[in-house]
Amino acid sequence: MLLNLVSPRLKVVVRPTLLYEQMKVSKINRLRWMCGHTRRAMIKNKAIRDKVGVTLVVDKMRMLRWMCGHTQRDKD
Q1: How many structural domains is the chain composed of?
Q2: Of 13, 17, 22, 45, which residue is most buried, by most CB within 10 angstroms?
Q3: 51 neighbors 35 (Cβ within 8 angstroms)
């Protein structure tokens, strides 16, 4: 019975989360490779992203929300 309840939750919640994390890790690994660094150099991910000019989706969404609020206030 417990296995039947866990399996659908595993498919819906855990798998996509793990896949998304793997995508983030592979992306930062590609960025490190582009810069000529390895993980052994122990350079922070933010420094790598800044060097390449890549921003996080979360930061982009925050900026869009901020700009959208300002444009709506300007219309009034």
Answers
A1: 1
A2: 45
A3: yes
pLDDT at residue number 47:
92
- The three-class DSSP label of residue 13 is helix
For residues 50 and 44, give the distance between their C-alpha atoms in angstroms, rounded to a whole number.
10
CB atoms within 10 A of CB 15: 11
- CA distances in angstroms from 13 to 6, 57, 63, listed in the order given: 10, 20, 28
* C-alpha distances in Å from residue 20, one per residue of 35, 37, 68: 23, 23, 27
Structural domain harbouring 35:
2-75
Q: Which two tokens stand for residue 55?
A: 């921003």
